[in-house]
Amino acid sequence: MLKKETFIFNLPLFASALMNDYESRFRHFAAVKYSFFSIGLAAAPANTALAENGVAPLNYFLHSHGPAATPTMYLGWVFAALLAAIFVIIALLLAGAVFRKRPTEDPRAIGREDEGMPWIYIGTGVSTCILFALAIYTLVTLNVIAKPTHAPGLTLTVTGYDWWWKVEYEDDDPALSFFTANEIHIPVGVPVLVKLKSADVIHAFWVPMLAGKTQMIPGLTNQQWLQADAEGVYRGQCTQYCGVQHAHMGLEVVAQSAAEFQKWQDAQRKTAVAVSTIDIKAGKQLFLERCAGCHTIRGTEAVGAHAPDLTHLKSRRLIAAGLLTNTPDNLVQWITHAQDLKPGARMPSMVLTATEISALSAFLSTLN
Amino acid sequence: MSDVAQSKPDPNLTRVPEVGSAPIGSAAEMRLTRLWESAPGWRGWLSTVDHKEIGLRYLVTAFIFLLMGGIEALIMRLQLARPDQTLLTPEQYNQLFTMHGVTMIFLYSLPILSGFSNYLWPLMLGSRDMAFPRLNALSYWIFLFAGIFLYASFPLGEAPNAGWFNYVPFAGLEYNTGPNIDVYALGMVLLGISTTVGSINFVVTLFRMRAPGMSINRVPILVWGTLTASVANIFAIPSVSLAFFLLWLDRQTGTHFFDVVNGGKPLLWQHLFWMFGHPWVYAVVLPAMGIVSDALPTFCRRPLVGYSAVALSTMATMLLGFGVWIHHMFATGLPTLALSFFGAASMVISIPSAVAVFAWIATIWLGRPVFNTPFLFFAGFVLLFVIGGFSGVMTAAVPLDFQLNETYFIVAHLHYVLLGINVFPVVGGIYYWFPKFFGRMMNEILGKWSFWVMFIGFNVGFFPMHLAGLLGMPRRIYTYAPHMGWSTVNMVTSVGSFVFAAGILIFLINILISLKRGAMATQNPWDAPTLEWATPSPPPAYNFAVIPFVASRHPLWEDRLDEGGGRSSLEQGYLLMEGREMIGTTPLDAKPDIILKMPDDSYTPFFLGLFSALAFTGLLLHWRDFTVLMTLACSVSLIVWMWPRKALVQRVPDSIQDKGATHG
Question: Which of B16, B227, B579, B591 has its CB surrounded by the most CB atoms within 10 Å?
Answer without folding.
Answer: B227
